[in-house]
Amino acid sequence: MIEVEGVSKSFGPTKALVDVDMSVPIGTIQGLLGPNGAGKTTLVRILATLLAPDAGRARIAGIDVRQDPNTVRSLIGLAGQYAAVDETLTGRENLVMVGRLYRLASPLAKTRAEEALERLGLVEAADRPVKTYSGGMRRRLDLGASLVGRPRVLILDEPTTGLDPRTRLDMWAFIRDLVAQGTTVLLTTQYLEEADQLADHIVVIDRGKVIAAGTSDELKSRLGSDLIEVEVAESDLDRTTAVLSDVGCGKATIDEVRARITIPVCDPVPDLMAALRVLDKAGITPKDLGLRRPSLDDVFLALTGRTTGDEDSDAPPTTGRRSRQRAGTPA
Amino acid sequence: MSVTPTSPTSPTTPTSPTTPAASTAPTASGAPSPADAMTPIQSVRVPRSAIFVDAMVIAKRNLIRIARTPQLLVFATIQPVMFVLLFRYVFGGSINVPGISYVDYLIPGIIVQTVVFGATSTAVGLSQDMSNGIIDRFRSLPMSRSAVLAGRTIADLVRNVFVVLLMVVVGTAVGFRFHNGFIPAVVAIFVALLLGYCLSWVFALIGLSVPDPESAQLAGFLPIFPLVFASSVFTSVKSMPGWLQAFAKVQPITRAANAVRALTEGGPIATDLTWTILWSLAILAVFAPLAVRRYRKG
Q1: Which residue among B4, B19, B132 places its CB closest to the CB of A119?
Q2: Where are the beta strands (DSSP E) in A25-69?
Q3: How far apart are CA A291 and CA B95, in angstroms?
Q4: Quick check: B5 and A98 CB within 8 A?
Q5: What are phi and psi of A288, to 5 degrees?
Q6: Nearest alpha-carbon partner for A77 in A194, A185, A5
Q7: Is B68 on the interface with A (CB under 8 A)?
Q8: Residue B43's pLDDT is what?
Q9: Could you give all domains of chain A from N- to C-terminal order, each with its CATH number?
Q10: Domain boundary assignment for chain B
């Protein structure tokens, strides 16, 4: 449904996108994951016909975005991190206006607006000016505006950036719902968890280049294994590290700040049991202990040598002081 | 959840009565259910008639904005009222224009000044839209490219109608009178509004070219000051030095002020009226395509 072949785009000396390929099948969610400034928004703008690529081709439902932008516009809905709605108009007025601009006759635009308001839980606020809306409501209205044209392809540029966790969950449920009904979604995010939760297929981009692509599980399997994570009292850290040194099948990562040890394992359950045994024998009671699948954060670290949070540092992080910073700290 | 954005049970193919060509583009609004996604996609062209509909949708939006932010309208009207009071009561006594009472000389000029200042709001409004992201929404919609600009200029024209009528009322309150009959007075107001509308396209180009609304405000006034003050708006150009007179005599604002003055107060009309209309149309012909091109480029 969305095909991107060898797309490049530069802004002066800055290479925003370099030879990017991507293909999104109908009715799936494609996650486009990367830190701030990775080029996600540039790709979104190219697909939404707001920007022409310097090289390469981008097609939506087989239509080239450069050759026939207007047809592409009729197929897509765009919603973004900067809720593009009119502050002075009411929610309903915003939706009807966008419906009219999607070439719907006035009564149909009104019906569609009403549908979207119901769908997004904005009926009560429908006749209030948008400037009285909360951030989450604005974002929902923005999404609603992209839906009144019943797009086949929905392009969501960081739809949950800056939303509180509860609103984010609602947004996720809503996006899943749309996809269940056949909409194809391209979703950019800097939240690893979001891509993990929503996307069927993920493209990781960094500094304009695709550095990995695959399903969430495929990306995680690149790390090769599950992880045991042990958190202990600070005073126990060295001792714990020592007793666990024979457990697992890889080099342990030690976060001194949080007194947390992460050990890759090849045989998850026996290894976990072994860890429990040695800890018990040494008389150490961990504050927290668990087996987990590697997160996309781990994947990103493995792929780029950087966590998503410290995009400015080029030096590979020292294993001892691994930052567990949540991705997506505002720039 | 019978109401879903993608419900396959509502295979409506909407056709806008005002845009017949839309019926050839079912994909523009067809439901993206999996079955529907298989149907071939037809090219969507923006029909000519749609420019008008789109422009009206945008104009309506801008007018709602103006109506809901009355403080902006108040500030926009206070300024010309101040000019009326300033020139009527402060400077007016020492300005001597032969053959006409100064208030009758002044108010036609103020009407022209008002529409010209009013036209600058096109620059501010457009650059506001650019900076808050709604222009990106418009650009991603299958709508006419020029409609965003046409809708904006039309809304600003409506606003100018309101401000001009208010100036007539204020002018009348300070002693201005129409001395040349009703029809010429109506024509005078039309001519002023025509110039204002065409100038709006200059400011549309400015609004699209500057980075933020504050710059738009300043950049908008830059070309306005020499045009409004080196003109016959406040006083006769005959008192100006020769080099300035050469410019002041022929420029559009002098022509418009003279035309409005002749239409409301009497005197030879034809030359100034013709020049005003020619100037207006020339400005429109040059700046409307430039502004639309700037908008398309993004």
Answers
A1: B4
A2: 29-33, 55-60, 63-64
A3: 90
A4: no
A5: -155, 145
A6: A185
A7: yes
A8: 66
A9: 2-220 (3.40.50.300), 225-293 (3.30.70.100)
A10: 47-297
